[in-house]
């Protein structure tokens, strides 16, 4: 199989414009005759469903929460990038494109990234028009902050609640369409399988999470905006419900999964405090604008931070990366934090933490400015740790945060199953091996508001959709397969809870496929995951039945998929004998301990095909070409 | 620390429900209220019992999924804190916590601590937006919006839709929730063209749902984890009164409340 990424030819600056012109249009009167399923109501799914509804398509939108407004996007804190250059500091579409390709360590497609940078400006306009209360200057203009991996201020934000405000904008647009009747919303409804008829995605099987009923939904096309899979690690900054099930079941039906091992570890999270811990709390990256990161020079220095004099502090990021300092990209900041802790210089009870210190900034700017910028983050930190960051430096440690990998899509955001489109964090498309801060919100909204409305139109206009309904054999087979998994999970009634398996899987993934990886460790992990999965299917205890609200059953299905995904992540990490972005293989590093890419052998997207349970997956490579930004060793020195 | 949890258990909407008492002997003061329930649930499952159903997702106090009454207080004793961020150090060793779901006719019971809050979505759908389809926008800096105005809009926009305001209100009114959206959008120039229509539409839907009326008691704002100010209710009332005499035939129509979940997944 070869992959056709449908990349436009010719100058990159006009590529998207030319593509849009070439895409076929659906006659306005025909739009309502086309039905589209959108799974997910986050920034990607919500913006897509609303926009497709506005265009007049007949849309059904699904989410597992009780309301579309609660999608995980709501939790994003720091901001969203756009190449507006409102600050007159040298930004441009080209610079955002350049920074993103470089930040992704030259493992993303140039044409996709260029389009993203180009669309970024329209996103801000659209969101402002919806009433998103972005931060402003006294004079009334929009203001910006800078974020890791960039030397310009291009991040728009709404206090520390940017994701919430952007999602509410999309949610309100979505509810407007619900009221207009163009979109039907199905909350508390989980997609558990994809229905593929004659080689095309034509529907989904869902479970009503309140009544347990399985239903078949048929449409002309299916869009997944189902988010990332960071929860394979159990502890992550993701919402507890975030999962890979929708993507994974589509993968089992033939959609290729790309770069699963590219995961992002966020450098600034509150450290783990005990084994009851259910999730990790992010402290926005924007804190690195004013906070200085340090550890004691001496190993095992147990003095309280105010007792450690300046000369005995190591501001290691400022020391190693003088030009970016505390604002190096996430992967670099995280690896350095791990390195100093591994040397025994970590702080806090567990020694797994570094200081993020605001005392200089408070001296320079005053407490009120810091409180204005980060007040709610400081409150959150204090609520959780019972320490006052205005007085004592924060303690932070890296945590799993984002997954760059996802279902493979072409330039049209279409997966390898025709009619199945994938948006937002669920696809792999724009961030290469490392995502820059404030770029996920941008990508989700770019995909949903401005890309999919064009590309799906082309698909609908150029294909015929024979009638199908729930009685179709493929639909019935999908329902039977879902029922079989559910029945099996409920029948085992073993001795271990779902969470105990999930925790153990997460530990394996964090230890061997986390911040740094080795061939040996990955091989070991694959064996451990297989054994644990086997035990899961013999010994898990899912209480209750399948015909009402059963949160253990929901979790069990998701964890079952995480097992298979976890193994694929290790296989992918093992296959990639280089270090790039978030994927750091200890065997491949420069003399200074930086990631060592191998462009000659690994400048490709690794897209994996499913070949049945227990069979080795098939690797299909999509070569990457760089005509504009020349791959070089990333340097933030 | 040791705690006694008296938790409302109810299998389904039609079940009568009752309090069940659980004792927990080693609660770590650093864990959150939800982590405490996680620990309880693990032991229940191991004993072959059904875990307590409760809603949660982000566990960072922003998604609005979680929420229940602790000793009669929505989200428990800490101000401006949802139960997912409420750490156990705020309780005393040996204390009894009575935990029950939001009680309001407009939030029908689903199971244990889980209720149906779809009425909130229907209120938003009746005008809680700016009608601006994708592609219509002008440049973001077209409207200059003073920082004070923008900050005030943000204060109202911070609502997480958890339902604590309704649960705390003796009348089970949703005025704070509705007022927050009317204020957020009405304060901003982008929301002005629809200010009247929005107030009429949203208030009409609010009145269609079985929420009680607001009698200005103020419990809502005290329980609100985002401290939405009571003024938003005055803004709503002012906007509504001003808008009512301009009523039009093409107003946003109200929708009938739907509370049955078995209809909701049908294609
Ligand atoms: C704490 C935190 C802070 C962040 N801060 C920033 C930031 O400042 N800037 C930035 O750019 N990015 C940030 N990110 C990343 C960003 O928030 C996410 O990548 C992005 O919001 C993902 O959006 P999405 O629409 O792709 O998916 P999500 O928002 O995760 O939405 C997924 C949707 O799919 C639904 N769903 C999933 N599976 C199913 C199923 N099987 N059936 C039915 N429905 C399903 C869910 O119900 C949900 O509606 C942050 C992430 C975290 C965790």
UniProtKB/TrEMBL annotation, chain A:
Residues 502-636 form the Fumarate reductase/succinate dehydrogenase flavoprotein-like C-terminal domain. SUPFAM superfamilies: FAD/NAD(P)-binding domain (SSF51905), Succinate dehydrogenase/fumarate reductase flavoprotein C-terminal domain (SSF46977), Succinate dehydrogenase/fumarate reductase flavoprotein, catalytic domain (SSF56425). InterPro entries: FAD-dep_OxRdtase_2_FAD-bd (IPR003953), FAD/NAD-bd_sf (IPR036188), Fum_R/Succ_DH_flav-like_C_sf (IPR037099), Fum_Rdtase/Succ_DH_flav-like_C (IPR015939), SdhA/FrdA/AprA (IPR030664), Succ_DH/Fum_Rdt_flav_su (IPR011280), Succ_DH/fumarate_Rdtase_cat_sf (IPR027477). Its EC number is 1.3.5.1. It is a peripheral membrane protein. It is found in: Cell membrane. Keywords: Cell membrane, Electron transport, FAD, Flavoprotein, Membrane, Oxidoreductase, Transport. Pfam families: FAD_binding_2, Succ_DH_flav_C. It catalyses: a quinone + succinate = fumarate + a quinol. One of its GO terms (cellular component) is plasma membrane. The active site is at residue 330. Its main location: membrane. One of its GO terms (molecular function) is electron transfer activity. Residues 36-441 form the FAD-dependent oxidoreductase 2 FAD-binding domain. GO terms for biological process: anaerobic respiration. Its cofactor is FAD. Belongs to the FAD-dependent oxidoreductase 2 family. FRD/SDH subfamily. PANTHER family: SUCCINATE DEHYDROGENASE 2 FLAVOPROTEIN SUBUNIT, SUCCINATE DEHYDROGENASE FLAVOPROTEIN SUBUNIT. This is succinate dehydrogenase.
UniProtKB/TrEMBL annotation, chain B:
Pfam families: Fer2_3, Fer4_8. Its cofactor is [4Fe-4S] cluster; [2Fe-2S] cluster; [3Fe-4S] cluster. One of its GO terms (biological process) is respiratory electron transport chain. The keyword Iron-sulfur applies. InterPro entries: 2Fe-2S_ferredoxin-like_sf (IPR036010), 2Fe2S_fd_BS (IPR006058), 4Fe4S_Fe-S-bd (IPR017896), 4Fe4S_Fe_S_CS (IPR017900), Beta-grasp_dom_sf (IPR012675), Helical_ferredxn (IPR009051), SDH/FRD_Iron-Sulfur (IPR050573), Succ_DH/fum_Rdtase_Fe-S (IPR004489). Keywords: 2Fe-2S, 3Fe-4S, 4Fe-4S, Iron, Iron-sulfur, Metal-binding, Oxidoreductase, Tricarboxylic acid cycle. Coiled coil: none annotated. Its EC number is 1.3.5.1. Residues 150-179 form the 4Fe-4S ferredoxin-type domain. It comes from the Bacteria. PANTHER family: SUCCINATE DEHYDROGENASE, SUCCINATE DEHYDROGENASE IRON-SULFUR PROTEIN. Belongs to the succinate dehydrogenase/fumarate reductase iron-sulfur protein family. This is succinate dehydrogenase. It comes from Paracidobacterium acidisoli. The lineage of its organism: Bacteria, Pseudomonadati, Acidobacteriota, Terriglobia, Terriglobales.
């Amino acid at each position: 199989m070869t992959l056709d990424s449908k990349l436009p030819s010719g100058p990159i600056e006009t590529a998207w414009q030319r593509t849009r012109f070439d895409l076929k249009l659906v006659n306005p009167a025909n739009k309502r005759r086309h039905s589209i399923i959108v799974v997910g109501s986050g920034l990607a799914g919500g913006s897509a469903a609303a926009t497709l509804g506005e265009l007049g398509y007949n849309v059904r939108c699904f989410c597992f929460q009780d309301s579309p407004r609660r999608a995980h996007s709501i939790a994003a804190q720091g901001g969203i990038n756009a190449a507006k250059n409102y600050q007159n500091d040298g930004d441009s579409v080209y610079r955002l494109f350049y920074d993103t390709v470089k930040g992704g360590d030259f493992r993303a497609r140039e044409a996709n990234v260029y389009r993203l940078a180009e669309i970024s400006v329209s996103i801000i306009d659209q969101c402002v028009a919806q009433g998103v209360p972005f931060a402003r200057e006294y004079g009334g203009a929009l203001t910006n902050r800078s974020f890791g991996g960039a030397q310009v201020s291009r991040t728009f934000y709404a206090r520390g609640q940017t994701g919430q405000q952007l999602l509410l904008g999309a949610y309100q647009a979505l509810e407007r369409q619900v009221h207009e009747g163009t979109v039907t919303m199905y909350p508390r409804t989980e997609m558990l399988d994809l229905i593929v008829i004659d080689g095309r995605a034509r529907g989904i099987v869902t479970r009503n999470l309140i009544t347990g009923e399985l239903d078949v939904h048929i449409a002309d096309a299916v869009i997944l905006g189902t988010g990332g899979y960071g929860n394979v690690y159990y502890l992550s900054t993701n919402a507890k419900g975030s999962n890979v099930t929708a993507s994974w079941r589509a993968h089992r039906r033939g959609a290729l999964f790309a770069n699963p091992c590219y995961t992002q570890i966020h450098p600034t999270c509150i450290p783990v405090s005990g084994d009851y811990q259910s999730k990790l709390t992010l402290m926005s990256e924007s804190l690195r604008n004013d906070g200085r990161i340090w550890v004691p020079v001496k190993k095992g220095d147990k003095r309280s931070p105010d007792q450690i004099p300046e000369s005995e502090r190591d501001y290691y990021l400022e020391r190693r990366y003088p030009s970016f300092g505390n604002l190096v990209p996430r992967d670099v900041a995280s690896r350095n934090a791990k390195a100093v802790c591994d040397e025994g210089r970590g702080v806090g009870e567990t020694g797994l933490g570094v200081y993020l210190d605001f005392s200089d900034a408070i001296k320079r700017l005053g407490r009120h400015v810091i409180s204005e910028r980060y007040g709610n983050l400081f409150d959150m930190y204090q609520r959780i740790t019972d320490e006052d960051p205005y007085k004592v430096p924060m303690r932070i440690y890296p945590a799993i945060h984002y997954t760059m990998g996802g279902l493979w899509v072409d330039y049209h955001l279409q997966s390898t199953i025709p009619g199945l489109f994938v948006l937002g964090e669920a696809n792999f498309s724009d961030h290469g091996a490392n995502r820059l801060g404030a770029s996920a919100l941008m990508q989700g909204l770019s995909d949903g508001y401005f890309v999919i409305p064009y590309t799906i139109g082309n698909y609908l206009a150029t294909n015929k959709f024979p009638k199908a309904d729930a009685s179709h054999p493929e639909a019935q087979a999908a329902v039977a397969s879902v029922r079989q998994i559910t029945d099996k999970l409920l029948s085992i009634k073993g001795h271990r809870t779902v969470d105990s398996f999930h925790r153990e899987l997460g530990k394996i993934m964090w230890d061997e496929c986390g911040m740094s990886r080795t061939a040996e460790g990955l091989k070991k992990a694959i064996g451990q995951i297989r054994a644990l999965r086997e035990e899961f299917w013999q010994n898990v205890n899912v209480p209750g039945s399948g015909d009402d609200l059963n949160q253990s059953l929901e979790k069990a299905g998701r964890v079952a998929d995480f097992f298979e995904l976890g193994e694929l992540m290790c296989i992918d990490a093992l296959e990639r004998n280089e270090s790039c972005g978030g994927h750091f293989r200890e065997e491949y590093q420069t003399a200074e301990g930086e990631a060592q890419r191998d462009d000659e052998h690994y400048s490709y997207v690794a897209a994996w095909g499913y070949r049945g349970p227990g069979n080795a997956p098939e690797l299909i490579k999509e070569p990457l070409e760089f005509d504009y930004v020349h791959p070089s060793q990333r340097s933030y020195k | 620390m040791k705690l006694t949890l008296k938790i409302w258990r109810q299998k389904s909407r039609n079940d009568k429900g009752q309090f069940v008492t659980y004792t927990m002997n080693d609660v770590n003061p650093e864990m959150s209220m939800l982590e405490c329930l996680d620990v309880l649930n693990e032991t229940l499952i191991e004993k072959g019992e059904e875990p307590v159903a409760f809603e949660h997702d982000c566990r960072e106090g922003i998604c609005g999924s979680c929420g229940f009454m602790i000793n009669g207080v929505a989200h428990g004793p800490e101000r401006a804190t949802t139960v997912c961020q409420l750490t156990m150090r705020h309780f005393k060793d040996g204390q009894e916590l009575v935990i029950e779901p939001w009680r309001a006719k407009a939030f029908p019971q689903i199971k244990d601590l889980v209720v149906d809050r779809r009425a909130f979505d229907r209120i938003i759908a009746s005008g809680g937006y700016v009608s601006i389809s994708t592609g219509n926008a002008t440049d973001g800096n077209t409207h200059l919006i003073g920082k004070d105005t923008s900050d005030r809009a943000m204060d109202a926009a911070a609502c997480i839709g958890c339902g604590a305001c309704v649960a705390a209100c003796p009348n089970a009114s949703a005025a704070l929730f509705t007022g927050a959206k009317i204020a957020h959008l009405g304060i901003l120039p982008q929301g002005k063209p629809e200010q009247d229509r929005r107030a009429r539409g949203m208030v009409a839907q609010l009145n269609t749902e079985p929420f009680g009326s607001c009698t200005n008691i103020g419990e809502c704002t005290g329980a609100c984890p985002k401290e939405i100010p009571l003024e938003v209710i005055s803004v709503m009332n002012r906007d509504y009164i001003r808008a009512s005499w301009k009523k039009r035939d093409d107003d946003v129509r109200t929708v009938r409340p739907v509370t049955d979940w078995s209809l909701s997944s049908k294609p």
